[in-house]
Amino acid sequence: MAVDSETTIDADAETENLTLVQAVRDGLHTEMERDEDVVVMGEDVGKNGGVFRATEGLYDEFGENRVIDTPLAESGIVGTAIGMAAYGLRPVPEIQFLGFIYPAFDQIVSHAARLRTRSRGRFTCPLVIRAPYGGGIRAPEHHSESSEAMFVHQPGLKVVMPSTPYDTKGLLTSAIRSPDPVVFLEPKLIYRAFREEVPSESYEVPLGEAAVRREGSDVSVYTWGAMTQPTLEAAENLAGEIDVEVVDLRTLSPLDEETIVESFEKTGRAAVVHEAPKTGGLAGEIISTIQEQALLYQEAPIERITGFDTPFPLYALEDYYLPEAARIEDGIRDAVEF
Question: What pTM was computed for the model?
């Protein structure tokens, strides 16, 4: 079930004007203060405050037993966190960049995702694996991956990709409180791109619910994470020509199929925007969902506006690889003018 396009905050609530990365830190702090079983761990997350300073200050406040600097060994970080989760803690391991997560892939899909079913419910695995993802920051190789589809394909995992500071804190809170493992991917391109009022107190944004960021009647555009902002920009640029509805999925597993279908039934045309490569990306799953549940409403082929089927390029071609507002506008026009 989608939420309203505008975030509603209680008028009496105390708020802070935070960037997205500050909202990550605030969400971690709030949950660590509330629940002593929440433990943060990863490379340089302690004294150094993390490569993007997402954990800055937590070590000084909560100490080395709850903010743990680990060796540079992603498999060991996640494997240790799985054991901690199975025995009652709520670890939040950080992987410095999503492109570094592959050594831990076996631990994630063979153990974390399967622990509940393997033990017939005797054990659960309440951990949140945080990782910055995506391109646009002129980083070296392995620093710009957007491989969310790999994790969505694994039963037993939840996959979350926020796009605003408010949602980031609320979704992270829900993820930490979840009894099952969550892969929480943070769009580092917009870590400090803009600010938003975020409640100082603890609150949850439910997992599995999309947000309609902009209502429209001509075409539905589905996106998430860092691509939400250029998609909204494209929609505004087309205003007066095409009335674009923008749906920010926020959670990719479980997918909010109800909102996807409800929006498409209203418009009959659609596009999906993501920065991951086209082949095997989540756009294909979203399109299949629409055609299974709303085929008779379809007026035109559904456009995929995505990254390319190549390794993420270095500096000179980085901006060309990422879908930006002009390319998104072209894709939307193709969907409408067919």
Answer: 0.95
